[in-house]
TrEMBL record:
GO terms for cellular component: cytoplasm; ribose phosphate diphosphokinase complex. Belongs to the ribose-phosphate pyrophosphokinase family. Residues 251-295 form the Phosphoribosyltransferase domain. It comes from Salpingoeca rosetta (strain ATCC 50818 / BSB-021). One of its GO terms (biological process) is purine nucleotide biosynthetic process. GO terms for molecular function: kinase activity; magnesium ion binding. Signal peptide: none annotated. It comes from the Eukaryota. PANTHER family: RIBOSE-PHOSPHATE DIPHOSPHOKINASE FAMILY MEMBER, RIBOSE-PHOSPHATE PYROPHOSPHOKINASE 3, CHLOROPLASTIC. Keywords: Kinase, Transferase. This is Ribose-phosphate pyrophosphokinase 4.
Length: 354
């Protein structure tokens, strides 16, 4: 039997591997989400410290680093949950990462077992739903893999307290919540409040008069326009002419001297964002920046953003943790961690004593 070397432990204020945990809520995670889990635990502790005994009582959260993620010689997972007996009658949160796709099977194996250890409840936090852009069939023969992944998650067994919850951030299309069976409860959340905070911190008094939020297509506008209705928003339109993307503004407004911020849910190769940025740059703005919740960037395609040389700021969250590690310290990329927002959601809902 061969084993994978576990990631190096990062020091944190959160306690780990307490065999007989006194906490009401246990947070497990995939190894790729270890640093995210530690930040989340620290954010929850910070909230508890700030709030004290104000309002409703809160349950204690214990971040658990005791799942052995190993492999057999044939490459299939060899998994083991240390101290599994502590799961009984406790609320469980699992911080998942399904990108790249090779990680899905081993995590589903764990998720399918957690309810069988008599967990009181199960909340699956899957910040990035990776097949979300394959959500429809335009031509006969296409396979909407978003439906497939939703069905796989829907097969997670119920707990003593009811169906598992699946928390997803900025899913590509809202109708994908209906791809899940009634056996699970999808919770669709957004990281846009984090962007709003960053825009206010970056532009200050200029925000109301000199900042323009630009959506690269109608899809992005439908997803985010209502959430950004306090900002001046415009939408790009585009069409293909041969191998070229032709981009224009649906609203013919001057961008001269404005700070343009392109907003979308995710970026893959960056082709759409770069085409939109080049068009905006030709309109003489003061600056061009961008925000995406999910910085996917397969095969290091983020290098094209750097080479483009147009973006002043490129904000992204750590929903794709391996990409976030690659982008650390690389201009113009700037991380906005989603964990403070998630901590707030957990604090107000999952950790509240009913």
């Amino acid at each position: 039997m061969t084993t994978t070397t576990p990631p190096e432990r990062v020091e944190s204020d959160v306690a780990y591997l307490v065999p007989n945990s006194s906490a009401d809520v246990l947070l497990y995670f995939h190894p790729t989400m270890k640093e995210v889990a530690q930040r989340l635990g620290d954010n929850v502790l910070e909230l508890q410290s700030q709030q004290g005994n104000v309002g409703r009582l809160r349950k204690q959260l214990d971040v658990r680093d005791d799942i052995r993620w190993e492999t057999f010689k044939d490459g299939f997972p060899n998994l083991f949950i240390e101290n599994a007996e502590i799961i009984k009658s406790r609320d469980v949160i699992f911080l998942a990462n399904f990108f790249p796709s090779q990680l899905i099977f081993e995590q589903l194996a764990v998720l399918y077992m957690l309810p069988k250890y008599m967990a009181k409840s199960l909340t699956i936090v899957l910040p990035y739903f990776p097949t979300a852009t394959m959500e429809r069939v335009d031509d006969e023969g296409q396979i909407p893999t978003a439906v497939t992944l939703a069905h796989m998650l829907s097969a997670v067994p119920p707990t003593r307290g009811g169906p598992p919850q699946v928390v997803v951030y900025d899913i590509h299309t809202l109708q994908e919540r209906f791809y899940f069976a009634d056996s699970v409860l999808p919770r669709l959340e957004t990281a846009i409040p984090l962007l709003q905070q960053r825009l206010r911190a970056t532009f200050g008094a200029e925000l109301e008069t000199d900042v323009v939020v630009i959506f690269p297509d109608d899809g992005a506008s439908k997803r985010f326009a209502k959430r950004l209705q306090d900002f001046h928003c415009l939408t790009c339109s585009k069409k293909r002419q041969g191998d070229q993307r032709v981009v224009w503004l649906a609203e013919d407004e001057s961008l001269e001297g404005k700070h343009a911020v392109i907003v979308d849910d995710l970026v893959q190769t960056g082709g759409t964002l770069k085409s939109c940025a080049r068009f905006i740059h030709s309109r003489n703005p003061a600056s061009v920046s961008a925000y995406v919740t999910h910085a996917v960037f397969p095969q290091a395609s983020w290098k094209g953003i750097v080479e483009c040389g147009i973006f002043k700021h490129f904000w992204y969250t750590d929903t794709c943790p391996e990409t976030a590690k690659q982008l650390a310290g690389v201009a113009p990329f700037e991380l906005i961690s989603f964990t403070p927002h998630l901590a707030g959601l957990l604090y107000d809902f999952d950790l509240a004593v009913s």
